[in-house]
Design a protein that fits this description.
This is Isopropylmalate dehydrogenase-like domain-containing protein. This protein has 400 residues and is of the alpha/beta class. Helices cover 44% and strands 20% of the residues. The protein has two domains: 188 residues, Isopropylmalate Dehydrogenase; 141 residues, 3-Layer(aba) Sandwich (Isopropylmalate Dehydrogenase), CATH 3.40.718.10. The protein has a ten-stranded mixed sheet, with helices on both faces. It has a two-stranded antiparallel sheet with strand order 6-7. The protein starts with a helix and ends with a helix. The structure holds nicotinamide-adenine-dinucleotide. The site of nicotinamide-adenine-dinucleotide has 24 residues, from helix 4 and helix 7.
């Protein structure tokens, strides 16, 4: 009996051969029984996850499908966890058929999953505020996914357009994701008249600001440089943004090991371009970080590599993972969308659900593919989406 049972447990192909050989025999010895016992115990205890896949619109469908191929290949190759993606057809087509972007019981539907992998929402023939509020913003607020985390890093093989960033960029952006300028408060009166009025009211609550500040300080503390910049606009916004600053200063007292500073959002754009090395973790409001994260993505090489996590840090609700980009009307259907942002979002999802090792292996594969120059056109390459998927899958196979 040369083969020991435990050797099989994480090698799916060899395990299968062993099962066939052992099951084909007429009698079983102690080692065989131990083998079957260990194998089935391992199968039963293997981490197993159900993920809601909501590809949405435009290139969202392309990058989510690309990512599912890669993550399923990873799970099969490593054999250390199981993952099932269940397709949910919400988006503009669903809206055209039903009059809604999501089903009526959509929050209960999502709560049945361990996490959500999201593509993008937005279509040229539906106003953007209808599509965004109909789907993505209808999820973020009610599920209290209040922390939007956006890591930004220059990948091997990709070019940072800044000559001021000699070592590339490695930032962590934290965006308040449940209130602020995107609270949805306001209204319009006298529509169409000369004297028409429209208000867009930004809402800042002490609870909302405090929880995102704590999250940001904790994030900064977990990174080697322990450095946080609080982005504000309290010179001209004299109510909500002043509360924002005051809460930041109070929360900072609980994090004496984190060095922090405060910066007006306009000056922050200059700092990101002129002094990128002075930045590590950034926290800002819903609107400010929406804008700054697109700038950060462009500085890292392309919006096509920028991931994001919409987290409920209390873990009462499933968190949602998505690329920063939208549905990209100009390249939809051309097969050239960069899938890296969604790969990276899926890696962040794996970390969140407890598969840190698998996530780091996945990112290693993606980085090796980028370093080899297998890139989509947004990064100056000539590969298409499927070319990048195939190259990453080949790298994943080497992990087996
Ligand atoms: N999270 C979301 O679902 C989300 C985010 C942003 C915009 N949107 C929606 O998407 C639609 C289009 O918005 P937009 O044009 O302002 O932003 P966008 O992110 O869709 O596209 C901006 C530019 O970046 C390029 N780009 C984006 N992702 C890319 C990728 N993966 N690979 C290569 N190039 C990529 C596009 O081709 C385009 O030139 C609108 O309806 C908008 O409301 C949705």
């Amino acid at each position: 009996m040369g083969l020991r049972p435990l050797h099989f447990c994480f090698l799916e192909r060899h395990t299968l051969q062993a099962i066939v050989i052992r099951a084909g025999r007429l009698s079983f010895d102690f080692d065989d029984i131990l083998f079957f016992h260990t194998y089935f115990l391992n199968m039963a205890s293997k981490n197993s996850y159900r993920i809601a896949s909501v590809p949405g619109d435009g290139i969202g469908t392309e990058v989510v499908s690309a990512t599912i191929q890669v993550v399923e290949k990873l799970a099969k190759t490593l054999g250390t966890f199981k993952i099932d993606f269940e397709h949910i057809p919400w988006g503009t087509e669903y809206y055209k058929q039903t009059g809604r972007y999501v089903s009526e019981d959509y929050l209960d539907t999502l709560r049945k999953y361990d996490a959500v992998l999201f593509g993008a929402v937005g279509s040229p023939d539906v106003p953007d505020h209808i599509s965004l509020w109909g789907l993505l913003l209808a999820i973020r607020g009610p599920l209290q996914l209040y922390a939007n985390v956006r890591p930004v890093r220059t990948f091997p093989g990709t070019k940072c357009p800044l000559n001021t960033a000699t070592d590339g960029i490695d930032w962590m952006l934290v965006r308040e994701n449940s209130e602020g300028e995107y609270a949805g408060q306001g209204g319009r009166s006298h529509v169409g008249q000369q004297w028409e009025v429209a208000t867009e009211v930004a809402v800042f609550t002490r609870v909302g600001v405090e929880r995102i500040m704590r999250f940001a300080f904790e994030t900064a503390r977990s990174r080697p440089r322990k450095l946080l910049t609080v982005v504000t606009k309290s010179n001209s916004m004299r109510n909500g943004m002043v509360l924002w600053d005051e809460v930041a200063a109070t929360v900072a007292n609980d994090f004496p090991d984190v060095k922090w500073d405060k910066m007006l959002v306009d000056a922050m754009t200059v700092r990101m371009v002129a002094k990128p090395g002075s930045i590590d973790t950034i926290v800002g409001t819903n609107l400010h970080m929406d804008i700054l994260s697109d700038l950060a993505a462009a500085l890292a090489g392309s919006i096509g590599v920028a991931p994001s996590s919409n987290l409920d840090p209390t873990r009462k609700n499933p968190s949602l993972f998505e690329p920063v980009h939208g549905s990209a009307f100009d390249i939809t259907g051309k097969g050239v969308a960069n899938p890296v942002a969604t790969f990276w979002s899926a890696a962040e999802m794996l970390i969140w659900i407890g598969e840190k090792d698998a996530a780091s292996k996945l990112m290693g594969c993606v980085e090796r593919v980028c370093a080899a120059g297998i890139l989509t056109p947004d990064l100056g390459g000539t590969s298409d989406t499927q070319g990048v998927v195939d190259a990453v899958c080949l790298e994943v196979e080497k992990l087996g």
